[in-house]
């Protein structure tokens, strides 16, 4: 189960809500997707670099982020994350729920990350049947499609894990 937790953490680190100054549906065009998620007390590192735009309906929290195509990468050499060109969900204070468009490979299965919740200094990631918690400081830096967190040196930063893994 600890490998599931590590995979979930990697997925969240590489989530597809990335830098963007293009907004739609009445959003302030000078604000990025990074700014928006931070408004909800979530760290910017949940979003990868490369978001081309976003939409936010503040009346119901519906959020969409757009990438210029699909995105994937591996972390620590064995965890794989995959993002569709459109990521969507509902955002509220300390929470992304109903998330679609992001998946993580666990063993031989691709599982969808469906929810991210902040609790104090931890983020909990859920794939529906299981969840794992990770320290929030793993998510202060934004990953990049293709190479993750360290594209210059070709090495990936190790992710800190909490021993807590729970299944529902």
Automatic annotation (TrEMBL):
First and last residue of the signal peptide: 1-20
Xref: SUPFAM superfamilies: At5g01610-like
Pfam families (UniProt xref): DUF538
InterPro entries: At5g01610-like, DUF538
Keywords assigned: Signal
Name by which UniProt lists this protein: Uncharacterized protein At5g01610-like
Organism: Prunus avium (Cherry)
Origin organism lineage: Eukaryota, Viridiplantae, Streptophyta, Embryophyta, Tracheophyta
Gene for this chain: LOC110749306
